[in-house]
Amino acid sequence: MTSGGALIADSGATVEGTNASGKFSIDGISGQASGLLLENGGSFTVNAGGQASNTTVGHRGTLMLAAGGSLSGRTQLSKGASMVLNGDVVSTGDIVNAGEIYFDNQTTPDAVLSRAVAKGNAPVTFHKLTTSNLTGQGGTINMRVRLDGSNTSDQLVINGGQATDKTWLAFTNVGNSNLGVATSGQGIRVVDAQNGATTEEGAFALSRPLQAGAFNYTLNRDSDEDWYLRSENAYRAEVSLYASMLTQAMDYDRILAGSRSHQSGVSGENNSVRLSIQAVISGTITTVVLPVGPRRKATAAMASSVWRVTCSEQRLPVCH
Predict the structure, then answer these.
(1) 219-248 burial by CB neighbour count: b if 16+ within 10 A, else e?
(2) DSSP result, the chain
(3) Residue 107 CB partners (closer than 8 Å, separation 6+)
(4) 39, 2 in Cβ contact below 8 A?
(5) How far apart are CA 201 and CA 46, in angstroms?
(6) Other CB atoms within 10 Å distance of the CB of residue 63
(7) What integer pLDDT is reported at residue 27 of this predicted model?
(8) pLDDT of amino acid 149
(9) What is the structure's pLDDT at 259?
C-alpha cells in the first residue's frame, strides 16, 4: 500500500504486517483496519460498518469511506493525500489535515468542473463529516453548496472538541450559478460546533472567491462557534457594469443604426440589414441581432427592448 498496490481482505480473512509506521492489521470479519499507511498511489476503502483507526495517508495516497464507515484514533493526511467521503462519516478521534478532503467524490478535475456548471433543480444529497477534533495544517476540505434558493450545503461537525490552526474550505456551487440569492438569518451553516466544541477565530477561510448571480458570499464565525456563509449587502462589482449596459446599447444604436451605410450597406433577406448589440453577461460576451427592414430604422427603443429581455433572462437585480 506504499507503492500503488491494493491490499484486500476477503472472505473474513485477517491480514497483519509491518509498514513504515509500524504494525498494521485488517480484520475482514469485523471490517476493522488499524495502523494503515497509504502513499504513492496506495488506497483503502472503509465500507459501511467498517472502521479505520490510526491511519496515515501520505503523498498520493487515498482513503475512501462509504456512508456508515468510520474513523477512530488519529487520522493523518499529509500534503498531497486525499480522503474521499461518499456519505455521512464519523470520526471519534482526531483528524490532522495537510491534504485534501472531498465530499461526494469530487476528486478529479472533470468531477469538479461538472459540479461547477449550473445544475438547475438536479437533486443533490449533502453529507456530514463529524469529528471530535480537527487540526488544520493548511489542508483543504472540498464541500458542495446550493446558492440558488435552498441555501443548503455539506457540513463539518466538531463534536465536543476543537478546530484549530488553519483549514481552507473550497465550495462548489451545485445550484444554478446565475441565480444566487441573498442569505437570511445567520446564513448557511457549514461548520457546526456541537456539545461544547470550540473553533479558533482563524480556523477556517475560503480557499477561493464564492460568487453566484449578483452576490459575493463570505465565510463568518459567530459567537456560537459555528461558521456560516453569508451574502454581502453590496452586489458584485460587475453589477454596476450591467446597470450601464442599457445606456450603452442605446448610444450604440444611435451611432450605428442612424448611419445609412449601416442600414443599407449590407443586403439581407428581403433587402434587410442586421444590427448587432454586444453585452457582457456573467463574464460572457453576448451578441443580440436585430433585423432592420429596408425602410425601417433601428431605434433606441428596439435596443432597449432587446437588452431588457436579455438581461431579465439572467435575472439580474438591475433589470428594471
Answers:
(1) bebeeebbbbbbbeeebbeeeeebbebbee
(2) --SS-B----TT-EEEEEETTEEEEEETTTTEEES-EE-TT-EEEE-TT-EEEEEEE-TT-EEEEETT-EEEEEEEE-TT-EEEEES-EEEEEEEEESSEEEESS--SHHHHHHHHS--TT------EEEEEEEEEEEEEEEEEE--SSS--B-EEEEESSEEEEEEEEEEEE-S-TT------TT-EEEEEEETT-EE-TTSEEESS-EEETTEEEEEEE-TTS-EEEEE-SSPPTHHHHHHHHHHHHHHHHHHHHTSHHHHHSS--GGG-EEEEEEEEETTEEEEEEEEE-TT----HHHHHHHHHHHHHHHT-TT--
(3) 62, 82, 84, 100
(4) yes
(5) 33
(6) 27
(7) 73
(8) 82
(9) 58
CB 183 within 8 Å of CB 189: no
pTM: 0.70
Residues of the chain with pLDDT under 50: 1, 4-6, 8-14, 108-118, 240, 272-286, 292, 294-300, 303, 306-307, 309-318, 320
pLDDT of residue 30: 73
Q: How far is CA 21 from the centre of its chain?
A: 34
What CA–CA distance (Å, rounded) separates 245 from 113? Answer: 30
The Cα angle at residue 258 between residues 257 and 263, in degrees rounded to 5: 55
Contacts of 114 (CB under 8 A, 6+ apart): none
Burial bucket for residue 58 (CB in 10 Å: 0-12, 13-18, 19+): buried
Residue 179, pLDDT score: 84
Q: How many CB atoms lie within 10 A of CB 167?
A: 26
Pairing of strands 210-212, 22-27: unpaired
Question: From CA 155, how far away is CA 190, in angstroms rounded?
Answer: 5
